[in-house]
Every structure is written in structure tokens, then in C-alpha cells.
């Protein structure tokens, strides 16, 4: 391959010989003066012979170059004349000992360039195409195509804004030649193999209203190479260059050449495109606008297939199908482009900035045999967010047409029709769509799925499979999986691991996406290509399918994790990356039961563990062991130890040495003994509305499933935007066995009590739990303010007297004040309810501030308080295997009597003993949830 210089740029062999003789004579002047007369005679004889030799040689050359020789390629071989001249030159002209700096010139003389000079009229060929535009008479097809085109244009007009040619030319452009004297440098790349249209293209380009900078005519492996060369040379224009190669670089070679241009813009044309004389001006003007500067422009394009009713995608060549897409413009159905239209890829011509061309080669093409047009548009969108647009034309002005002849290029019937090539191109566009290419269908019909799984290896596929299968087998749920593909995780191997047929990797139906990360990373040891490939593909898939969550294993490669995180954050509709530890995956099948609106909040809550301890080191050790054995789903869980001033040495050593891998550890110790009421109430204060506090005294023990219960309940009842549940103020881990606010403290069995609804239904209770509960930030701020306004050393001075409640006489109890507030304002706590009252926490009833205290006359039976811990997945025990909707949760008042949420508020309003005096029995105190301060009375 090489750029061929024109013969006019080279000196003739006679010029070289004349120069050498001059050098010889002038350089040897001093020696010739001293030479003998015999030497002069020899020189005269040599010159005479040389003249005779050149006369003979010139005669041969004149015959050789005579126009009478019709077939130059079949001319006789006169190289013998050249050999004779060379022999005479060596013997008579330049003796061997005087070559010196003339050696290079002498070597050039031996191989003279003797190309004939032609004019375009002598060598140009034309291709006459018998052309009658086919017009469809299929009424169904005409209707389908026009309807689809109308839908596309309506959508684009609303989303993008579609301009006519006149409107485009009125847009501000940095390449507007009417106002800007600086003109863009445009390199035009023409690729030719056999077609006889080169002269027509060059003539059109030479008469453009905006001159080009360069034209490169490419001939790769063409049998007509010599003919194309002569045509280029005949134009004798230094801006037009000929590039040839005996190897056929096919469709990608022209783009490889375009990488070398130093121009501002590149115009790549198929050999069947004869652009109108205004095309360069129109194209550069549009490319210079802000709106279309990051785009590839053309005159012909295709919109890829739309999904069918059976959720599959048809071939782009399927007949009598609206879903098969569009060819634009399509004269067969009288579809003309009168406004700019975004397409999925362009055909026959491409106009873009030189900078964008390199994007074509970021990934290895699906095949080099075809499809460079689709690959270009796919790569530009995927890595540069650049669109592909077909420009409108003025139907009355052929000079605005991308193909002024409207011959081959605008006839849809002449596009690829060979079955094997159609299959390859179908496979290619499906590959693009399934790796994140946002086609016009995807833009017009955004999808909504619950989860997109990602696996970078076969082991990760296997680890994720239980949760993926649960999503896919649950009615109303949608979930797909993307795999890295290639050497990392071959699609067919992933299908086998999932017990799916291998065919899923080929069929045009959403289920598994092979990202083929190796197409970009290759054998590189750098992490950058992997990050780029995963990020770009997953970003596109997220934009197409809008998953609520992207789910993968927590121990995935750090670079892949980074790419997934960046991709998830690009979705404005809210997609959350969920990183699950492998042992926890089978434990979160309840995730499927959450609404898609709740799932994006998976990572929002921050639940801290706050332990109150002093001098029960054995109890604390038991609690810490149970905490360490729980499932945490990869979440960050801060832990704090709140110690009173009399803490013993062994407890300090234990909390200091305790290793907590799930988040930061904080130690707090009071200087002055505060007692239990201060120790508990001051152990935690929320930092935000997503900060939740789990309060645990050291004689509590918890179930391995406690955190799953908290997270599940928060997502179902608090973080689902479709659920309004402002009364919920805490989530209990414990299920009580007695009614503790009644003097007699009767036994209580919720399983029996709710058997008519469901024996294991969770329920709402007005009683807060002090033996393992998570408190909500807004209500805890309220509690701080309320307790500050009501707390005194004398319990009898408390004005709140709940009728028939034992809590009225409680002293030194933080829980009493919380009960008062919840009663007055109608708040409730969520309680678990499982067989045998098994719970997520239990109280071991060890001596402390209340239990076995000297001044406590109440005697506690351990059997009334200690409950078994859940050691199995609780999901199967729930009604219908999941948490019931908030509206179906039964609610109890402080005395374990069924009362509606409205009834609870009415009881508080009737008591009328809150910090604000609300005179109306239908009003309760409303607070500022940021500060917890009471602000007004509000109707309920």
C-alpha cells in the first residue's frame, strides 16, 4: 500500500545524465587543463559515442510512449535498449573512480519512471444502470412501514426534536461558511473494487460548494487497480491520492485509513454514492452545531427490529412485519426523510469528526466479513454516547442528496439478501443489543425489570443461581443475568451451570447477556479494558432494562465491582448495586417478595448495634458470639459499647479486644454513674433519617437471622414508596409471653391469639420492646425531646397516667417514658410471631438494675421471659411465605387488645396529657421530625 506520486513530479533520466555530465566536467576542470592531448581526444570520442547512444535510446523511448500503442499493458519489451544504454554509460561516460556523490543519481537512471500522461476523458469509465424504482403494491406492508415510521418520528420529535433541512441550516454552526471564513478540512475516503463510478464521484467532489481538503481513493485487492490508478493520475490534482494494496482489507480498511487523516472531518463513501454538490457544505454545517457535533451523519440508515408479541425479535429482513424495522429512506414504500432522524446504523456513507473514527476499533468487530456500519454506530454510542443520524433532503434539489443518482444506494431491495450474510448480520445486531446497544426500540420502549444479575466467572453463576431462579420463577417478577463471556465466563458454560439449554445464548430473547469482555480486554494483563468493557455494557443494559437492583457476589473482582458501581450510578431512574456474600444468597430469597419500588433502597439504611454493659462479662461474651454468627449481607454495621463508670476490668478487656469485621467499633464510658435510664437512652442518637439504632443490654442473645428480619421489615414497610406507615416507630426482635403492663401479668400466646388470621402473622403492638429492638430515627428524636420535658427524679410527678396501666408506677425506667409517648401519639412496634414464640432475641433474665433488684417487689419467672431463638430461615413460616402487606397487619393496644391504628390515636387524644394541650379529641401532637420538637396539634 502506498501513496503514488505523479510522473510530473519526477525528473527525467535525461535530466540526471545532464547533471552528471556537468558535475563531471566542472569537477574535473583542473585535471583536464593538465591532461595530454590524447586524453582530450578520448573524451571527444566518448561524447560522440554517447550522443549516438542517446539518439538510439530516444528513438526507442518515443516508440515506447507513442499514443499509437493502444494496449499499454501488452506493449513489447524494450528493456534490451535500456541495458545497452546502461552498458555504454558505464564504459564511456563515468569512469568507476569518479562516482562519488553522483552514485545515487546514477542508480535512479537505471530505473526510469516513464508513466504516460492521461486526461480524465481518456481513461474515465461510466456505469449505466438500468433503473426503475420498485414500488410496493402490498397494502399491508405499506401500512406497517408507514405506521412504524410515524411512531419513530413522533417519539423523536418529542424526545430529541427533529429538524428539516432548512431548520438545520439555520442552526448556529462553527462551520457556517456564510459567517465563518475558517473552513473545515475534510478528507473524503472513496473505496473502490470493481464498480465504474470513480470519475462520477471525483467530478462531484471537485464541484462541491465547500471544497474538500483531501480525497483518498482506496483500491484493496481490486482486479481494476491499474485502471483506478490511471483515473486518479489523470485528474493531476495534488489533493487526490491513490492508495492501493494487493491485500483486500474489505470494509474496515477504509476506516483504518481514516485514522491517519489530520483533517477536522472525514467523509467515507461507498462506491455507489454520488453526492450532490452541496453535501459537504450541508454535512459540515450540521456537524458544527452543538446538537450534532458528537454524531455520525449520513444519507441512508436502518432502524433495527422491535420486539414481537412473543417477546422475541425477528430478523431485520423479515417480510410483512412491522417489527422488522425500517430502511430509511425507502422509496419502495414512499418513505422519504424530510426531517433528521436518528437510526441504529448508517449505510453507504459516514460523515464524522476524525476523532470519532478511532472509536470503531475499541472492541474487536463481531466479524470482518460484514457489518462495519453497525459496529461503528454501536461503538460510537457505547463508548462516546454518539448518535447516528440520516439527514433530510430537499426533494426538489438533487444537490442536497447524498446520492444524486438515486440508483443503487436508495433501493432497499438491493441490500443484503443472501441467507448466510443475513444470519451473520442478525447475530451481530442481536449481540450489540444484548451488550448494551440502545436501539430505537429500546429508546422508545424502556423496560422495567426487578433485577439484573452479573457473574464474571462460572463459580459466581452457580453462587447466584438460587436467587436468580427464585426471581424467574415468581409470578410478576423479571430478572436477567449478564455474564462476562469469552475466557472469563463462556455463555454456554453459564447456561449449563444454570441448567438452561445452550440455545439461550443464541436465541433473540432476553434471558442471558454475553458481554464478551474479551473482545476489548484480549490478552492484556491490565485491568483497564475489563473495567471499560463491563462498565460500558452494563451501563447500556441498565438504561434499556431499568433494573431495580444489579446483583452480584460481594467478593467479585475489585475492578469489576468498580465498573458495576459506576454503571449503576448512571441510571437516573434509580438502580442499586447489591453485593451479596455467597453464604447469604440462599438466605435472602425474600428479596423477591419486595416491590420493585422498594428494592432500590437496599443500601439506604444504616443499622448500628449499640450495647449497654457494665459488669456481666460472661453475658456480654454470649451476646458478642451470637452477633458474630449472624448474617449481615455485606452491609456495614457499626457497633458501640456503652459502659457506665463502674464497669469492671474484664469487661473493658473484652470490648477492647473484640474484633468486629462488619464496620467501625466505638467505646464509650461514663465518668459519673448514670444508671440504666441514662445508659440506654443516651447510647444512640440518629445521624440521619436512614440511621437506625439496635439497642441491646448485655444479657440478651440473638438469632443468626435477626439482621435479615430487620432489613426485610424495613424494606417492606418503611422504604417502599407505595406504603404509607408513619405510625411504625420500631421493630422488635422479641416476642413477649406475658402482658407486662397489666397487674396480674397474664400469659400471652400470639400464635394462638391470631390463628384465625394466620398463626404466624407478624403484628403491631403499642408496647415498645426493651429486649432487642431497632428504633427509628424520627421517633427517637421525638422521644429525646419528650423525655427531656417529662423526666424527673420523682416518678410520681409524671403527669401521664394511662388508665389501668402498671407503667404509671414504674421508676428509673426509660421504657416508661417511651410507652407514654407511643400511647399519646398512636405509635406502634412490629413484632415477630413464630411457633413456640421463637424469636430473633431472648432475655436471659440475669440480675441487674431491674431483675432481682433489692427494691423491686416483682418476682420474675425466667420461663415467662426466655424464648427460643430462631435457628432456621424464617421466610417459610410467614403467611404465604412472605411478610403480609402493611394494611393486613393486625394491631394491638397497650393491653394486647385488638384496636385499629386510628383507634390507638383516638385513645391518646382522649387522654389529653401530652406536652401540648390539644383540646380537640380528634387531634394529637405533631412534631418537627428533624428536631423532635412538638410544633402543633394535628388531626388524625
Automatic annotation (TrEMBL):
Transmembrane segments annotated in the record for this chain: 43-65
CDD domains tied to this protein: Glyco_tranf_GTA_type
One GO molecular-function entry: transferase activity
Gene3D superfamilies: Spore Coat Polysaccharide Biosynthesis Protein SpsA, Chain A
Keywords: Membrane, Transferase, Transmembrane, Transmembrane helix
Keyword Transmembrane helix: yes
The UniProt record lists the keyword Transferase: yes
Protein name per the record: Nucleotide-diphospho-sugar transferase
Species of the source: Trema orientale (Charcoal tree)
Amino acid at each position: 500500500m502506498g501513496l503514488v506520486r505523479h510522473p510530473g513530479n519526477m525528473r527525467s533520466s535525461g535530466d540526471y545524465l545532464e547533471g552528471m555530465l556537468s558535475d563531471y566536467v566542472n569537477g574535473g576542470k583542473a585535471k583536464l587543463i593538465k591532461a595530454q592531448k590524447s586524453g582530450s581526444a578520448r573524451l571527444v570520442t566518448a561524447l560522440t559515442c554517447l550522443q549516438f547512444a542517446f539518439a538510439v535510446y530516444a528513438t526507442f523511448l518515443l516508440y515506447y510512449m507513442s499514443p499509437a500503442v493502444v494496449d499499454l499493458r501488452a506493449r513489447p519489451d524494450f528493456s534490451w535498449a535500456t541495458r545497452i544504454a546502461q552498458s555504454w554509460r558505464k564504459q564511456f561516460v563515468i569512469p568507476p573512480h569518479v562516482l562519488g556523490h553522483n552514485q545515487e543519481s546514477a542508480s535512479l537512471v537505471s530505473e526510469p519512471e516513464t508513466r504516460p500522461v492521461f486526461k480524465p476523458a481518456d481513461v474515465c469509465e461510466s456505469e449505466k444502470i438500468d433503473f426503475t424504482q420498485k414500488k410496493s403494491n402490498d397494502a399491508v406492508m405499506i401500512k406497517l412501514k408507514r405506521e412504524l415510521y410515524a411512531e419513530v418520528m413522533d417519539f423523536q420529535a418529542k424526545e430529541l426534536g427533529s429538524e428539516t433541512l432548512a431548520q438545520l441550516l439555520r442552526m448556529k454552526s462553527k462551520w457556517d461558511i456564510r459567517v465563518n471564513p475558517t473552513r473545515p478540512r475534510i478528507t473524503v475516503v472513496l473505496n473502490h473494487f470493481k464498480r465504474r463510478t470513480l470519475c462520477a464521484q471525483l467530478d462531484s467532489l471537485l464541484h462541491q460548494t465547500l471544497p474538500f481538503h483531501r480525497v483518498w481513493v482506496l483500491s484493496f485487492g481490486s482486479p481494476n487497480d491499474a485502471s483506478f490508478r490511471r483515473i486518479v493520475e489523470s485528474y493531476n490534482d495534488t489533493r487526490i491520492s491513490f492508495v492501493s494494496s494487493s491485500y483486500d482489507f474489505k470494509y474496515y480498511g477504509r476506516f483504518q485509513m481514516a485514522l491517519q487523516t489530520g483533517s477536522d472531518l472525514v467523509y467515507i463513501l461507498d462506491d455507489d454514492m454520488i453526492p450532490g454538490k452541496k453535501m459537504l457544505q450541508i454535512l459540515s454545517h450540521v456537524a458544527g452545531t452543538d446538537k450534532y457535533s458528537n454524531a455520525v451523519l449520513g444519507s441512508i440508515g436502518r432502524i433495527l427490529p422491535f420486539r414481537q408479541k412473543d417477546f422475541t425479535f425477528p430478523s431485520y429482513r423479515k417480510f410483512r412485519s412491522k417489527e422488522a424495522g425500517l430502511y430509511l429512506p425507502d422509496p419502495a414504500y414512499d418513505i422519504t426523510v424530510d426531517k433528521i432522524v436518528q437510526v441504529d446504523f448508517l449505510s453507504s456513507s459516514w460523515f464524522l469528526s476524525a476523532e470519532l473514527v478511532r472509536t470503531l476499533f475499541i472492541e474487536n468487530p463481531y466479524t470482518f466479513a460484514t457489518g462495519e456500519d453497525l459496529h461503528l454506530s454501536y461503538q460510537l454510542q457505547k463508548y462516546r454516547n454518539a448518535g447516528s443520524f440520516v439527514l433530510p433532503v430537499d426533494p426538489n434539489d438533487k444537490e442536497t442528496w447524498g446520492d444524486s443518482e438515486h440508483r443503487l444506494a436508495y433501493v432497499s431491495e438491493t441490500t443484503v439478501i443472501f441467507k448466510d450474510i443475513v444470519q451473520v448480520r442478525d447475530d451481530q445486531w442481536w449481540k450489540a443489543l444484548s451488550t448494551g446497544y440502545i436501539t430505537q426500540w429500546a429508546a422508545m420502549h424502556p423496560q422495567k425489570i426487578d433485577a439484573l444479575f452479573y457473574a464474571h466467572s462460572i463459580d459466581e453463576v452457580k453462587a447466584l443461581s438460587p436467587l436468580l431462579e427464585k426471581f424467574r420463577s415468581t409470578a410478576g417478577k423479571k430478572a436477567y443475568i449478564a455474564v462476562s463471556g469469552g475466557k472469563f465466563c463462556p455463555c454456554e458454560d453459564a447456561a449449563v451451570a444454570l441448567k438452561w439449554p445452550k440455545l439461550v445464548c443464541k436465541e433473540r430473547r432476553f434471558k442471558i447477556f454475553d458481554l464478551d469482555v474479551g473482545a476489548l480486554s484480549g490478552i492484556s494483563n491490565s485491568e483497564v479494558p475489563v473495567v471499560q468493557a463491563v462498565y460500558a455494557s452494563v451501563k447500556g443494559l441498565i438504561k434499556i432494562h431499568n433494573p431495580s437492583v444489579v446483583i452480584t457476589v460481594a467478593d467479585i473482582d475489585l475492578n469489576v465491582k468498580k465498573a458495576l458501581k459506576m454503571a449503576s450510578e448512571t441510571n437516573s431512574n434509580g438502580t442499586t448495586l447489591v453485593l451479596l456474600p455467597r453464604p447469604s444468597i440462599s438466605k435472602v430469597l425474600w428479596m423477591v417478595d419486595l416491590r420493585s419500588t422498594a428494592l432500590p433502597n437496599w443500601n439506604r439504611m444504616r443499622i448500628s448495634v449499640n450495647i449497654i454493659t457494665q459488669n456481666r462479662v460472661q453475658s456480654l461474651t454470649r451476646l458478642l458470639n451470637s452477633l458474630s454468627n449472624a448474617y449481615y449481607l455485606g452491609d456495614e454495621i457499626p457497633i458501640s459499647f456503652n459502659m457506665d463508670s463502674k464497669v469492671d476490668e474484664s469487661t473493658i478487656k473484652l470490648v477492647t479486644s473484640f474484633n468486629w469485621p462488619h464496620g467501625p467499633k466505638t467505646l464509650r464510658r461514663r465518668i459519673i454513674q448514670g444508671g440504666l435510664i441514662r445508659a440506654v437512652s443516651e447510647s444512640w442518637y440518629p445521624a440521619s433519617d436512614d440511621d437506625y439504632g439496635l439497642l441491646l443490654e448485655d444479657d440478651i442473645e440473638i438469632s443468626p437471622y435477626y439482621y435479615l428480619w430487620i432489613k426485610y421489615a424495613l424494606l417492606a414497610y418503611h422504604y417502599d414508596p407505595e406504603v404509607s406507615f408513619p405510625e411504625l416507630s420500631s421493630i422488635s426482635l422479641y416476642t413477649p409471653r406475658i402482658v407486662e403492663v397489666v397487674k396480674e401479668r397474664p400469659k400471652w400466646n400470639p400464635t394462638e391469639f391470631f390463628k384465625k388470621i394466620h398463626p404466624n402473622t407478624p403484628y403491631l403492638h403499642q408496647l415498645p420492646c426493651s429486649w432487642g429492638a431497632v428504633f427509628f430515627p424520627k421517633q427517637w428524636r421525638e422521644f429525646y425531646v419528650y423525655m427531656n420535658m417529662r423526666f424527673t427524679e420523682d416518678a410520681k410527678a409524671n403527669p401521664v397516667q394511662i388508665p389501668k396501666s402498671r407503667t404509671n408506677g414504674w421508676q428509673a425506667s426509660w421504657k416508661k417514658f417511651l410507652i407514654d409517648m407511643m400511647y399519646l401519639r398512636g405509635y406502634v412496634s412490629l413484632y415477630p410471631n413464630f411457633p413456640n414464640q421463637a424469636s430473633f432475641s431472648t432475655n436471659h433474665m440475669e440480675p441487674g438494675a431491674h431483675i432481682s433488684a433489692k427494691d423491686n417487689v416483682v418476682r420474675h419467672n425466667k420461663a415467662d421471659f426466655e424464648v427460643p431463638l430462631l435457628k432456621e430461615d424464617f421466610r417459610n413460616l410467614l403467611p404465604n411465605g412472605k411478610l403480609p402487606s402493611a394494611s393486613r397487619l393486625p394491631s394491638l393496644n397497650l393491653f394486647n387488645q385488638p384496636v385499629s391504628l386510628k383507634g390507638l390515636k383516638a385513645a391518646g387524644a382522649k387522654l389529653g396529657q401530652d406536652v401540648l394541650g390539644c383540646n380537640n379529641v380528634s387531634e394529637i401532637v405533631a412534631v418537627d421530625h428533624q428536631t423532635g420538637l412538638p410544633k402543633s396539634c394535628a388531626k388524625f
